[in-house]
Automatic annotation (TrEMBL):
Pfam families: Acetyltransf_3. This is GNAT family N-acetyltransferase. Signal peptide: none annotated. It comes from the Bacteria.
Length: 167
């Protein structure tokens, strides 16, 4: 678990299924991240058990639920993913639309970046985003990521690749 002045970041549990259902069905998730076919609460439970928990079990890291300290309200996710087309983990984040532009994604990303070297012995990580996702590109650059190149994933997606050297 990570704590910042305004946020708590923790592992997802099946109790977070309603939030996962909401987040993965937002227009911005579908536009910039993609369709995950989370059509029911059971689909959300399966996603937590079969996708998110798999990261924790296999790598010791994964995406964390981001909650406001005040009221413990879930607002997004931020954490590490291991992609088969990248040799290092990459950071990913997504927030409910009503929490965009409030500095909370930056707060959560910097908290995650601050723990990676000591907790996971990582010297650097990647991040990817689509060409159209200007808001994510700006956040990555604000967090110290530097654009490397355009890549094509194993699924054929075209992404911008960023890298940061960890403090």
């Amino acid at each position: 678990m990570l704590e910042t002045p305004n946020l708590i970041l923790r592992r997802f549990t099946v109790d977070d299924a309603a939030f996962i259902f909401e987040l993965l069905n937002t227009p911005t998730w579908k536009q910039f991240i993609g369709e995950r076919n989370i059509n029911t609460l059971q689909d959300a439970v399966n996603y937590i058990n079969n996708v998110l928990a798999n990261y924790y079990d296999k790598y010791g890291y994964g995406p964390w639920l981001v909650m406001l300290k005040e009221g413990n309200k879930p607002i997004g996710m931020c954490g590490l993913f291991k992609r088969d087309y990248l040799e290092l983990p990459d950071i990913g984040f997504a927030f409910l639309p009503e929490f965009a532009g409030k500095g909370l994604a930056y707060e959560s990303c910097t908290a995650v970046l601050g723990t990676l070297r000591k907790k996971f012995a990582l010297n650097s990580i990647f991040a990817t985003t689509t060409d159209a996702n200007i808001r994510s590109q700006s956040l990555l650059e604000k967090c110290g990521f530097i654009y490397q190149e355009n890549i094509t994933t194993t699924e054929g997606d075209h992404l911008r690749l960023y890298r940061v050297v960890l403090p």
